[in-house]
Amino acid sequence: MHTMRKLFLFVLVSVICNSIFAQKEWVKLGLNFTNINRSSDTALVSTDAKLGFHLGGSLYIPLSDKIDFETSLLYSNEGYQSDEAANISILNGPIKTTSPLTTNLTYIDIPFGCRFHSTPVDERLFFADAGFYYSILLFARQKQEYEQNGEQKNFKESMTIGSNSLDFVRRSDFGLTLGGGVELGFVQIGIHYDFGLLNIASNQSQNSSILNRNFRISLALRN
């Protein structure tokens, strides 16, 4: 069942991407600077930002001379880093972590909203946009380097996804997205901030909360 879900998502993404590109709209790629806001009644856990990437396409539908409906479909690598130790067996001796614990969350992001832009002058225009995003989590993985008995080792593990209290995080995310940028002919440069509103923690006992945060820098080319 899990494999069939991944296959369905892959086919869906392929069809939508082909549809977007057939419209000769924007092909987009860029960097993510992601983190989470994580808290509970017992502790406020500190995390650090992680560098990732996004890739996909954007489509604009004019609503008026200066307002467009905007939507995108993005394959997005997100997540965070922390100083915690991974769940590594200590049966073979104590461990000493030698790198941060990196959590990779791979999403299909679907931002949508309105874009407000200036009147084009010599194929140049400025824009600002606001809206929402919905995300589907495809993979959740953790990795960390550590030392055990004088030997350097690598820890890698896939995390379970779902709403069961034993799962790592929930599959869906939703939030606000704000941004802006400039178009220079067939090139577009944009920055956006995605502010997660949905608690993606699977185990929400003791008011545990995990909220995604993502700062995106994008370069887009008109197809």
Describe this structure in words.
There is one protein chain. The protein is mostly beta strands and about 220 residues long. The chain has a single domain, classed as Porin (Beta Barrel), CATH 2.40.160.20. It is about 10% helix and about 60% strand. An 8-stranded antiparallel β-barrel has the order 1-2-3-5-6-8-9-10. The radius of gyration is 20 Å and the shape is elongated. The mean pLDDT is about 85.
Described by strand count, sense and barrel closure, the largest sheet is: 8 strands, antiparallel, barrel
Helix-strand topology string: HEEEEEEEEEE
| CATH T-level fold name | Porin
Residue fraction in strands: over 45%
Give the C-level CATH assignment. Answer: Mainly Beta
